[in-house]
Every structure is written in C-alpha cells, then in structure tokens.
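PROTEIN DESIGN WORKSHEET
SECTION A - STRUCTURE
LENGTH: 302
TOKENS:
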C-alpha cells in the first residue's frame, strides 16, 4: 500500500463556495458557511480520506481588494495558504463567470504556482446553461494552463467524488499527517468561536458581522463528560452591543442556542455555552485578536 498525504489550498473570491466544498469533502462542518461574503477569516484545515490518501484541505479567506487591516491580514493568509500547498484549486462561481476579481487572482497565481499543481473548479454549475459553461471553461484555460478543470456543485455534491479521486493521486507519497479520525486541524477553542460567529453572521444584517469577533475565553472539561465553554463577543460600538443582545436578550439567547446545538453535534457530547458581549472600539487594531483568529497582525500593515 502506497500511502499519500498532502495539502490542497482552496482559493477564490469571497462566496465562491470554498467552505461548502470543504465541509462536504470532510463530512463535518468545520468551516463557516453563510450567504455573506468574507466570512472565513483564517486558514481552516479540513481532512479528507480518499483511498490510501489523506488530503488536507486549506479553506482560505476569499481574495478581494482589502480596505482595512483585517482585510489585508485575511488576503495575506489566503495567498500564504496557496503558497504552502502541494495543490492549489481555484474555485469560481459559474454564474458570475470571469470577473475582474478572478482576473486578479489569475495574475497572482503566476507568482505562487511554481512547483505545484493548479486546477480549476467551476462551482454552482446548475445555475448556468451548458454552452455558457463550455465557453467559460475555454476562456479560463486560455488565460491559465490549469492541470485539470472540474465542474462541480459543492452544495449538491455533483462532481465532488471525481474531484477527490483526482486529488488523491496528486498529493505526494508519504505517511499520513494526522490521525485517521481527525477531521480538522484547528484548536477546538477556535472551532467553537467560529461556530458562534457563524450564528451571529446568519442572525445579524448589514455591516455588523464584520465589526465583531468571537473568542473562546474558557474551555473546561467536566467530570460528567460534558464541556463548559465561555465566549466573548467583541463589538466596536455600544450600539452594536444592543443589536447583538436584542430586545430582552432574545437575540443572544437564540444565537447561544443555535451555536450550542451545532457544537453538541460536532463534539458528540453535552455543551454548556455562555456568551458575553463586550465593547472594544479598536479590536481590529489589537494584535491579540488576530492571534486568536490565526492571522498575522503584521500582515495587516498597509
């Protein structure tokens, strides 16, 4: 038996479906999936097994034109994830086609593609006609010499198995990098924070989700096998605190319940979750917040 193991970076514009694909191939929810863009902030590693191969997927933040320090750190993390991988997958949304953002990513690929395989995954293929899809595939391959092109639906699973089989022989030969039953390479404290941030993002609207972050302050294993988790939701303004809490605390209660249910399913045990909301006007300028998110504070420098 020839074992293989390696890293596959998923890159693309925000909302291209990278997190949805990661969760599908891993078989567990390890990455935030929402209708809002720029929700993935850190490099999240999800681990899939295909045959004798262990494929470590790196779900990177979406690539976009950064405006703030946090944006710049997220974009740096995305390109860093691609540069460290054995295989790079550019994911694009079929119905959006060859956007200006995709054009910029194609230019950036030239700098990091040496010595690694780069493939194309066109996602959400059920949203376009076959003729449009064929033209898009040709246009993209004319712009960049992709090793392979996949047409998939990450949400419905179409084409995903063939994608995995191909990747299983692209990663290098060698021993597996993680235990067979491990599905993610992130501290559980961070996964728990990401779950709560997802619920906040889904519940709240407009700009607020980008003005908050979640930290797991305390994680305590209890004698009965359950876990006690304390989390802090940092917001930038007093007015935001009221929005997160909601009338009579209804919003924070609903978020806490939804997050607790997800964590119980993921951990397969009882979870006691306690949320606090704190105002930190300049949390996006504090290096500790970036460390907690797995980002490099210095990468956010203009």
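SECTION B - SEQUENCE
RESIDUE ASSIGNMENT:
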């Amino acid at each position: 038996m020839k074992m293989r193991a390696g890293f596959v970076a998923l890159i693309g514009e925000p909302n291209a479906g990278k997190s949805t694909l990661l969760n599908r191939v891993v078989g567990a929810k390890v990455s935030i999936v929402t209708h809002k863009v720029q929700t993935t902030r850190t490099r999240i590693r999800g681990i899939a097994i295909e045959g004798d191969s262990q494929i470590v997927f790196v779900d990177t933040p979406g690539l976009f034109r950064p405006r703030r320090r946090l944006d710049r750190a997220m974009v740096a993390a995305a390109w860093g994830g691609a540069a460290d991988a054995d295989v790079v997958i550019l994911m694009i949304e079929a119905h959006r086609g060859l956007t200006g953002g995709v054009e910029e990513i194609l230019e950036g690929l030239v700098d990091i593609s040496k010595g690694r395989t780069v493939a194309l995954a066109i996602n959400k293929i059920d949203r376009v006609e076959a003729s449009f899809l064929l033209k898009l595939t040709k246009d993209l391959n004319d712009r960049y010499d992709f090793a392979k092109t996949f047409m998939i639906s990450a949400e419905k699973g179409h084409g995903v198995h063939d994608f995995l089989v191909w990747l299983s022989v692209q990663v290098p030969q060698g021993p597996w990098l993680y235990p067979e039953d491990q599905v993610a390479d992130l501290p559980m404290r961070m996964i728990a924070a990401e779950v709560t941030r997802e619920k906040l993002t889904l519940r709240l609207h407009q700009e607020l989700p980008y003005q908050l972050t979640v930290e797991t302050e305390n994680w305590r294993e209890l004698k009965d096998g359950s876990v006690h988790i304390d989390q802090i939701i940092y917001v930038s303004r007093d007015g935001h605190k009221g929005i997160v809490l909601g009338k009579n605390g209804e919003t924070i209660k609903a978020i806490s319940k939804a997050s607790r249910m997800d964590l119980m399913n993921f951990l397969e045990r009882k979870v006691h979750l306690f949320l606090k909301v704190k105002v930190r006007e300049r949390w996006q300028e504090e290096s500790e917040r970036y460390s907690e998110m797995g980002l490099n504070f210095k990468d956010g420098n203009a």
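SECTION C - NOTES
Residues 34-41 have pLDDT under 50 and may be disordered.
Residues 250-267 form the longest helix (18 residues).
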